[in-house]
């Protein structure tokens, strides 16, 4: 898979002709920081790292790589959690960190035009003076780049009400693998032709290199309140989530934590969480004062009807910050109670939350690994944290197996193997569970339409049929495999 | 382009083997009703019309057509306005009217599983007992089918707040051109892999045959109010639209009519519209009583600041119905004041409304044809109605030219050539204005990934580069052609 010497030399010579020295990294010392992304369990060194500054440079780089058949892995801030930016040992990393300009805040059309290397939070900061913000807020928003957000169709706490990245992007300009500049979407509501904007969103760097993005901005809500409800039964908390949505209230955020997560977070962040609860829900509501009053009434009643033990309403900014602090520090908090943890990411229909948590707890007992659950409940987006010790022999493998079982469980109940982290390198085998050979064949055909030589991020996101066959008929089609114990609501 | 006798006979023989007699229409009398869709200016007779009842039949039909290289034009209720279901003279019409079952209303996950021939309004009717409804509401909703809605990414009055069809569809099952069954999307928030669900939505029957759809349902809003504001200047009305959205209020509907449309509608529907106004806005708000009170205050203030002459708030259902009656009857009302009219459909950034209406009025004077404007202002989705007389020689051609000029104008100000009617047969030449050769090439590649022999709805939606070249370098890239008189907000 690595490059032969001739091609390597030719590649570096040609790249050197178009890029200043500090834009082309080849020494092991210089490229070492690019060996992995946020999923650091997997590491590889690329042939070179290029850090272009202009669209023209990106076009030239892709043309050179196309001509020499050299793989290209695009990289934003490298915060991804599924190994989507893991280098290819025979290819280059195309880093977009120099594309860090906010080109325009358009207050009339409520959009921002930005380069892909701009940090997610920087867009909201730039829009703040105009009373506007960019809604999708992955927890890495202080560091992650908007280009990476588009490539992974990133989510976040507020995506329940305001949508995923795909719902908040209006136009994307890409450089194709053969160096052409193509604009997808438009500045208006709808665009004729096939919806290539949605297609590129979440395509994990496999269809083109994103070089400019127009995102939608929203007016900031007037006010915010946060409720915390505690439950004696996990099942009741799960049902409360579905019932709130069914009442027609879409909270700005609706998060759930189970007992192990509550205890870890409380020990770490002193958030005043109830230690006797089996589960808590955090519900953020936004809008005008009047809207808030009414939503709080509806949500409180729904929570009580779902057997909530206690409901706390945080009015002040301080109280709200304290309640969120526990949730936001849940990952590092879990890090304190276990040498290592593995964060999974799957999505299930809301009504299946109670059942899936029960099954995860059974799987946890079967394999002898603890698990803490912290997740975007409103979206049905689970983040089970599997606690393990990498220094114990065989425990990483046991953890990976447990993780894979959780993802298969998600698919079995009609869910999917990813909520917001993407497939990347991590979940490529689970794609064989999610999709049928016919569906994967259609993916290959689309890939081929953009990148016939498979040079863009090869080996990620979409497995070959051969790979799926090797894993052996794992396919479970949208939960249609008969599985008697799954409740069919 | 028509079939040779051998292929035709072979086709009819094979179709006859798998379909009962009344499912396979071949006599001119039987197929005549399928010669056009809602754009009746264009008519063609297909070789045959098939009306399958099961997915298996659709699979067999596509396999037969694939093998014989016979074009397939899928058709729902035939209400489309861009000629997307115009038959191919060498192909078959695959009518989906027998796919008319609502398979499931899922009140837990707020979805409905329906066959493609189900009428749009029938979904809302079926969901009503559960306090739910399906949001996108094209004006043809009493007749149009949900399969056609997905194929055209249909809009409607309420799409400003609740999104287009693409935002309200969760899963679509298609039969590919070679007869494979493929499920796109899932029952959860996000799905791994390329976003083929968004890709199929709005693809105008060119990528696959839709055989099942899972749509999202919403809880019915508690209450509704309608405001009407009148303006002495069209420009002020246009600005008011942008300002309402910028205030953070997203009305359920925000419609605009200009003077000719007001006069025609008032004469027809007696809606109590102000005849001295240059423009009126109709604004529908929904939510709880408290939310409504607050939104009405914000909207009223914004309207006054934008120089609204008069604001009428319709509280009662009767008053509201009367205000909407004028808007809803605007098309037939215009039909009374002109022998013929041609309904255009383009989208522009909201801030460009005033400028574009001024230019349309100038173009109207230049070519001597009257125009009435009735449109989804909140979306920037224009529907200029060009008034003409088809019996006057050359007037249809002049009308088509005027219509094309309006669409080019939409693209010049950063808009698009369609809002909700699709490209179909009607606007295929304007696609050369909208997209560059590189962008069209990417469309071809995607088409090729689904339908390498171009059998699905050939000649629609995406023009060949050859055709664009014949029309002569018309390309204006997202308003980037220098055009000094266009205000750049």
TrEMBL record, chains A, B:
<keyword id="KW-0560">Oxidoreductase</keyword>
<dbReference type="InterPro" id="IPR006094">
    <property type="entry name" value="Oxid_FAD_bind_N"/>
</dbReference>
<dbReference type="GO" id="GO:0016491">
    <property type="term" value="F:oxidoreductase activity"/>
</dbReference>
<dbReference type="InterPro" id="IPR004113">
    <property type="entry name" value="FAD-bd_oxidored_4_C"/>
</dbReference>
<dbReference type="InterPro" id="IPR051914">
    <property type="entry name" value="FAD-linked_OxidoTrans_Type4"/>
</dbReference>
<keyword id="KW-0285">Flavoprotein</keyword>
<dbReference type="InterPro" id="IPR016166">
    <property type="entry name" value="FAD-bd_PCMH"/>
</dbReference>
<dbReference type="Pfam" id="PF02913">
    <property type="entry name" value="FAD-oxidase_C"/>
</dbReference>
<dbReference type="InterPro" id="IPR016167">
    <property type="entry name" value="FAD-bd_PCMH_sub1"/>
</dbReference>
<dbReference type="InterPro" id="IPR036318">
    <property type="entry name" value="FAD-bd_PCMH-like_sf"/>
</dbReference>
<dbReference type="Pfam" id="PF01565">
    <property type="entry name" value="FAD_binding_4"/>
</dbReference>
<keyword id="KW-0274">FAD</keyword>
<dbReference type="InterPro" id="IPR016171">
    <property type="entry name" value="Vanillyl_alc_oxidase_C-sub2"/>
</dbReference>
<dbReference type="InterPro" id="IPR016169">
    <property type="entry name" value="FAD-bd_PCMH_sub2"/>
</dbReference>
<dbReference type="InterPro" id="IPR016164">
    <property type="entry name" value="FAD-linked_Oxase-like_C"/>
</dbReference>
<dbReference type="GO" id="GO:0071949">
    <property type="term" value="F:FAD binding"/>
</dbReference>
<protein>
    <submittedName>
        <fullName>Glycolate oxidase</fullName>
    </submittedName>
</protein>
<feature type="domain" description="FAD-binding PCMH-type">
    <location>
        <begin position="42"/>
        <end position="220"/>
    </location>
</feature>
């Amino acid at each position: 898979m690595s490059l032969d010497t001739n091609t390597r030399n030719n590649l570096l010579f040609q790249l050197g002709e178009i890029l200043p020295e500090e834009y082309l990294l080849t020494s092991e010392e210089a490229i070492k920081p690019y060996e992995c992304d946020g999923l650091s369990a997997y590491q590889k060194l690329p042939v070179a790292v290029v850090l272009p500054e202009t669209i023209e440079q990106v076009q030239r780089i892709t043309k050179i790589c196309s001509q020499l058949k050299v793989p290209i892995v695009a990289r934003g801030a490298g915060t991804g959690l599924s190994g989507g930016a893991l280098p290819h040992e025979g290819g280059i990393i195309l880093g977009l960190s120099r594309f860090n300009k906010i080109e325009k805040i358009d207050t009339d059309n409520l959009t921002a035009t930005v380069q892909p290397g701009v940090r997610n939070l920087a867009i909201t900061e730039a829009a703040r003076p105009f009373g506007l913000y960019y809604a999708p807020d992955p927890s890495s928003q202080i560091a992650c780049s908007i280009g990476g957000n588009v490539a992974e169709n990133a989510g976040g706490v507020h995506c329940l009400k305001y949508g995923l990245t795909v719902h908040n992007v209006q136009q994307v300009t890409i450089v194709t693998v053969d160096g052409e500049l193509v604009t997808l979407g438009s500045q208006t509501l709808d665009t004729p032709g096939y919806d290539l904007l949605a297609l590129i969103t979440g395509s994990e760097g496999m269809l083109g290199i994103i070089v400019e993005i127009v995102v939608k901005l929203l007016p900031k809500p007037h006010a915010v309140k946060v409720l915390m409800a505690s439950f004696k039964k996990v099942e009741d908390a799960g049902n409360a989530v579905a019932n709130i949505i069914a009442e027609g209230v879409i909270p700005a955020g609706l998060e759930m934590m189970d007992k192990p997560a509550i205890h870890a977070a409380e020990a770490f962040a002193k958030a005043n969480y109830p230690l006797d609860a089996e589960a808590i829900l955090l519900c953020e509501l936004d809008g005008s004062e009047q809207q808030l009053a009414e939503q709080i009434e509806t949500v409180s009643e729904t929570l009580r009807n779902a057997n909530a033990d206690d409901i706390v309403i945080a009015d002040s900014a301080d109280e709200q910050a304290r309640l969120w602090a526990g949730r936001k520090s849940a990952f590092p908090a879990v890090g304190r109670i276990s040498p290592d943890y593995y964060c999974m990411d799957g999505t299930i229909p809301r009504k299946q939350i109670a059942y899936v948590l029960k099954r995860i707890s059974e799987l946890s007992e079967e394999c002898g690994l603890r698990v803490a659950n912290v997740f975007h409940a409103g979206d049905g987006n689970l983040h089970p944290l599997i606690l393990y010790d990498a220094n114990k022999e065989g425990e990483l493998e046991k953890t990976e197996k447990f993780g894979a079982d959780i993802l298969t469980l998600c698919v079995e109940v009609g869910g999917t193997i990813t909520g917001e982290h993407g497939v990347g390198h991590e979940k490529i085998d689970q794609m064989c569970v999610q999709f049928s050979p016919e569906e994967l064949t259609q993916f290959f055909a689309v890939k081929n339409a953009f990148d016939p030589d498979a040079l863009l991020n090869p080996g990620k996101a979409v497995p070959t049929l051969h790979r799926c066959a090797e894993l052996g008929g794992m396919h479970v089609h949208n939960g249609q495999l008969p599985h008697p114990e799954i409740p069919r609501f």
